[in-house]
Amino acid sequence: TTKTLDLDISGMTCAACVGRVERGLSKLDGVQEASVNLATERASVTYDPALIGPAALVQRVRDVGYDAPSAE
Ligand code: 9UX
User: Fold this and answer.
1) In this structure, are residues 5 and 71 in contact, taking their beta carbons and an 8 Å threshold?
2) How many domains does the chain fold into?
3) Does the beta carbon of 64 lie inside 6 Å of ligand 1?
4) 37: CATH
5) Predicted pLDDT of residue 14
6) How far is the CA of 51 from the centre of ligand 1 (A)?
7) Quick check: ipTM above 0.85?
């Protein structure tokens, strides 16, 4: 089973930022796909809720250097 989380992310200013967030999220166990839209400053993350949850996804965004509010 999979779930999708949409996250607001702030602090991304160039296309390389998008890559950093996508790669940072994608390599976590349980994340199947992460796609970031620079224009809307949002990420869509598809994950296995048995392996990872929203709090860890938000924390990962912060760890790679951007700001994200608590998961909606
Ligand atoms: Mo672009 Mo983003 O030079 O942290 S990678 S601003």
Assistant:
1) yes
2) 1
3) no
4) 3.30.70.100
5) 95
6) 30
7) yes
